[in-house]
Design goal:
heterodimer, A: mainly alpha, 14 helices, B: 442 residues, alpha/beta, Rossmann fold, seven-stranded mixed beta sheet, Leu-bd (chain B), signal (chain B), Branched-chain amino acid transport system substrate-binding protein (chain B), Peripla_BP_I (chain B)
């Protein structure tokens, strides 16, 4: 009986007793969720355009953040370093298209997937060779990102919002909205969706596959850079950030691999769900449940919608 | 044409045979010391300075003295990425080359190697990490974990907290939080904490951080905000440490109530910014480069371009930690040479050398490390020393020692360690009884 009380009653009593902590937990979950959504977005972009699950998205986050900080450390002004890093991500996109994707056109998806494994290890090696393995501090203030917190009393307690988290949520939201408009309203966006539907049909109407691939990999690179800056500012810039990339997996399972809104909603559900779960129910099993809870939430959704919340329902003639 | 191919093939065979013969001859005149390191992966922030300290001290001995006892050390790194599976692969890869000692630098890897060490006759040095119970040399003759076990470290922290509260008994009804990496390393002191929590009467709160959430600890620190522990003890590694410190700053947890085991490096704390001032950590050796042995490292290794370290990092806490580890390796080899009269010693000899370690103040001075650490004596029975530690505080720029030596709660820890060693042997059926020779029974 005690167990049932601990699971079904006590957490809600705690929520009512300390609403400030509930709001704080929801806020932390939302911020994490927005950042998960950003990572997931990088995966979705590439999956939509080429049907490839880009295993290298996590290391692209690290590589972009390391490039930015590395350039700053050798004396390049922060904003110029930011521009140059965007340039590096463009060069990477062109390189990936020329060296990896173009020779593998029309190969089975699994071959392309394995190629992204190769890209992951190449970027790890290159990153360590150029920047070393030491953790670095993100140049938060130099990039004019706010620091400190906004604290206010609320419902008999207090809530503390980190200015950096507010900025992260805003930037991520603007970026997500911008990308959504880009895909829905622009010619390139429509071309990209055409490529996602059928490579052959897209080619037959004059869409350049190579150009589209460069654009999506570059966009995924910019998303990776944004993610790297935000996560790096919250902890540090190191190869451990790569692990954060894996957090996108349950988000993608939940939201669907092809849906931009799915990545956003999925990110928010996972972010809020894992924080609430860890905070209110984690102590019942000794804590540390966040890492598997995200997958559990995603699997529960899959039972009802196997294609994910916003994923396309695949109907094949047999 | 056919004769030309034959000549080329014959030359290749002769050349290969010659190289093999030279390598074999060299191997016979060398002492093979593999170093399991991690310069890559999520834990490289902690692994790199340690790897540099480990390497540079041994390399200095090669450059300055021609090795140990006139025999050069063959130093070889094996990259583990702090992955226990890769650590075991490294062990299997180096085993055939007859290592005289292995340093897993991972509690997970150490736990996997404990049953193999006695079979393969390779001593395992898990310096201040690994299985705490392996301090018992009677049960674990091939495992060494000086100068402190994690249980010693944890009890030293409790001892320090007790001092702050006017006595250990005053910890009754206090709340102590434990933030730890949810892996072998972080879980290691939990049995001790649970036992002491019952005995002393403090309320223990556990906050595990899964490895894939090291950079996303807001749930754990929100729980700390809710539970309001009087003190928080941190057992972190790699990216866990800087993130934990940032989160502590974020929830405005009193920095002087946050005490870490001995693993945070300068970079971990520095990245949290000026607000990290006041964070405390245990340590047992000096920080800084003002020692003749370290001057020699600079001269013979770092300035000579034979090190991978950044010059400014020489003398930082984790660099010196790696150095201390290599000091123990070198001392064990030198002891083994003295005991056996052999120049080129093997794993069995070095095991005896480890049991004979006696780092007196005079010996430390002779080694160019006067005052670097407390004296250390190991015996056949005691593979640890259970030494005192001290608390150092981050002053915003560097670690500063703020206490006299703090003893672990030896009376409380010793029986628990003995019982844990006994339990380990009982659980692993057929665990061998010690038959190894003993050169230092006292």
């Amino acid at each position: 009986m005690d167990i049932l009380y601990s699971i079904f009653i006590d957490p809600f009593v705690q929520m009512v007793d300390a609403p400030d902590l509930l709001i704080q937990t929801l806020w932390e979950g939302l911020v994490s969720g927005v950042l998960y959504a950003l990572i997931a977005l990088g995966f979705v972009l590439i999956f939509k355009a080429s049907g490839v699950f880009n295993f290298a998205q996590g290391i692209m986050v690290v590589f972009a953040a390391l490039t930015l900080v590395g350039l700053f450390e050798i004396g390049v002004p922060a904003l110029l370093a930011l521009v140059l890093t965007v340039g590096v991500m463009y060069v990477l996109a062109v390189g990936v298209e020329r060296v990896m994707l173009r020779p593998l056109v029309n190969q089975p998806d699994i071959i392309l997937f394995m190629a992204t494994f190769g890209l992951t290890y190449f970027l790890i090696g290159l990153g360590e060779l150029v920047f070393g393995g030491n953790p670095k501090s993100m140049i938060t203030q130099e990039l004019y990102l706010p620091t400190g917190s906004v604290d206010f009393e609320l419902l008999g307690g207090f809530v503390s919002l980190q200015k950096l988290d507010i900025a992260a949520a805003l930037i991520a939201s603007i970026m997500v909205a911008g990308l959504a408009v880009f895909f829905q309203k622009t010619r390139i966006g429509r071309a990209l969706r055409a490529v996602a539907d059928s490579h052959k049909a897209a080619l037959s109407v004059g869409i350049s596959l190579n150009q589209i691939w460069v654009i999506v990999w570059f966009t995924a690179g910019v998303v990776a850079l944004t993610t790297g800056i935000m996560w790096g500012a919250r902890s540090d810039v190191s190869f451990a950030l790569q692990i954060v990339g894996l957090k996108a997996l349950p988000v993608l399972i939940l939201g669907g691999f092809t849906s931009v809104p799915g990545a956003i909603v999925g990110g928010l559900i996972i972010g809020v769900g894992e924080k609430l779960g860890e905070f209110y129910w984690g102590p019942l099993v000794g804590g540390g449940i966040e890492s598997w809870l995200a997958y559990f939430i995603a699997l529960v959704f899959l039972l009802f919608r196997p294609q994910g919340l916003f994923g396309d329902k695949i109907i094949e003639r047999i | 044409m056919f004769k030309t191919y034959q000549a080329i093939a014959l030359s290749a065979v002769i050349a290969s045979a010659s190289i093999f013969a030279i390598e074999r001859a060299q191997a016979q005149d060398e002492i093979y010391v593999p170093l399991f390191t991690y310069r890559t992966g999520p834990f490289s922030g902690s692994g790199i300075p340690i790897a540099n300290g480990l390497h540079d001290y041994l390399a200095m001995l090669n450059e300055r003295d021609g090795g140990i006892g006139g025999v050069r050390l063959r130093i070889e790194e094996c990259e583990t990425s702090y992955d226990a599976k890769k650590g075991v692969e490294c062990y299997e890869a180096v085993k055939a080359k007859k290592p005289v000692i292995v340093n897993p630098w991972s509690t997970g890897t150490t736990l996997s190697l404990i049953p193999r060490a006695s079979v393969d006759k390779v001593p395992v040095l898990s310096m201040a990490y690994g299985l705490s119970a392996s301090a018992d040399g009677e049960t674990f003759p091939w495992i060494f974990n000086p100068p402190n076990t994690y249980w010693d470290g944890m009890s030293s922290i409790l001892n320090y907290i007790g001092e702050q509260e006017g006595g250990l008994e005053n910890l009754k009804d206090k709340k102590i939080g434990y933030v730890y990496l949810d892996a072998g390393f972080g879980k290691e002191p939990i049995p001790l904490l649970e036992s002491l929590s019952k005995e002393i009467g403090f309320d223990l709160k556990l906050y595990p951080v899964p490895a894939d959430n090291m950079q996303n600890q807001s749930s754990q620190w929100l729980s700390i905000r809710r539970d309001k522990p009087d003190y928080v003890v941190l057992f972190g590694w790699g990216a866990l440490n800087p993130t934990a410190i940032k989160e502590a700053v974020k929830i405005n947890y009193p920095r002087d109530k946050l005490i870490s085991i001995w693993w945070p490096g300068e970079d971990d704390v520095r990245s949290a910014g000026p607000q990290a001032k006041g964070i405390k950590a245990l340590n047992w050796h000096a920080v800084g480069a003002d020692f003749p042995a370290i001057e020699d490292i600079r001269k013979h290794v770092v300035d000579a371009g034979k090190s991978k370290t950044d010059k400014a990092k020489v003398g930082e806490v984790l660099y010196n930690r790696g150095l201390y580890n290599s000091l123990l390796i070198a001392e064990a080899i030198a002891n083994a040479q003295k005991i056996t009269g052999k120049k080129v010693v093997d794993g069995e000899d070095v095991r005896r050398g480890l049991e004979s370690i006696d780092l007196t103040p005079e010996r430390l001075k002779e080694l160019g490390l006067e005052g670097f650490a407390e004296p250390l004596k190991l015996t056949c029975k005691d593979h640890n020393g259970h030494k005192a530690t001290f608390v150092q505080e981050w002053d915003g720029d560097k670690w500063v020692r703020i206490t006299d030596p703090i003893d672990p709660l030896r009376d409380r820890v010793k029986p628990l360690l003995e019982s844990a060693a006994k339990e380990y042997a009982e659980k692993n059926s057929g665990w061998p009884k010690r038959t190894e020779a003993c050169d230092s029974p006292a």
